[in-house]
Amino acid sequence: MNTVIDTIDRRIIAATQGGLPLTPRPYAMIAEQLGLDASDVMDRMQRMLASGAIRRIGAVPNHYALGFRGNGMSVWDVPDDAIKEAGHRIGDLDFVSHCYHRPRHLPTWPYNLFAMVHGRDRAEVDEKVHHIAAILGVNDRGHEVLFSTRILKKTGLRIPG
Amino acid sequence: MDTRDVAIINHLQGGFPVTDRPYAEAATTLGITESELIERLEYLLEKGILSRFGPMYHAERLGGGLTLAALHVPDEGFDRVAEQVNCFPEVAHNYQREHHLNMWFVLATETPARIDEVLAEIERKTGCRVYNVPKIEEFFVGLRFEL
Lengths: 161, 147
Hints:
The complex is a heterodimer of chains A (161) and B (147).
Chain A: H1 7-16, H2 26-34, H3 38-51, E1 54-61, E2 70-76, H4 83-91, E3 96-101, E4 113-119, H5 122-136, E5 143-154
Antiparallel strand pairs in A: 2-4, 2-5, 3-4
Helix pairs in contact in A: 2-3
Chain B: H1 3-11, H2 22-30, H3 34-46, E1 50-57, E2 65-71, H4 78-86, E3 91-97, E4 103-109, H5 113-126, E5 130-132, E6 137-141
Antiparallel strand pairs in B: 2-4, 2-5, 3-4
Helix pairs in contact in B: 2-3
């Protein structure tokens, strides 16, 4: 689903995707940088929030710095006819930060359900993965946990302005 | 980190107001002052405890392309391939993971059609087969860290 955004929205996106200014009137400051009215900037951001173009506005924690060093991408081979229900149930778990249905690449890659699991260490992640396996029951036809060993790049998403 | 920082992290991962004085408003609900909130956010960002403070945009709803893809990279060439992949400005994140498919990256492009072009370029440049796993359905995205 695409949302209609115009070139002014795009300029606002480009000016804010690195973060909001830490000043008492951040939207007024952005407006000033872009030569817009503060009320126009706020209206447009409200509209993008309402349409889902902005997921949320707030603090983005660095989970490594917070002591969540276990970062396991758990991947599951779930029967296609069970994926919707399984995805919603796993996505609802509070230790899962991302949950998606993605395609298999047989024979190398049989997994179609991805759930990112966070914990303070690998043991905690493994425990949570067992919990997911218990929920999936017979619909868990195989799973693996891919732990990250190194961040090779992390610039965040950059939406061209 | 003090109790104010914990409150900021637990309660300000979303819902930051879009109003004239949003820090003042958010600070009130946290029981601190506007200047305290701004000062703590500066501190948390400087220490890298927060990677960002602001809006999280939804790339696909803005008309862009987004995907996750993986490579199997032989150990001896790993760093060279990492550099080749990271060179693409469309590569937003790249992680080394313990698996036969040992490199996983997120690609964000200006248009959906660019995804396949960039993946083909990556395949050609690295000589590694690209396993593209674009999302078919999203069940949940968000961070819910509680300290």
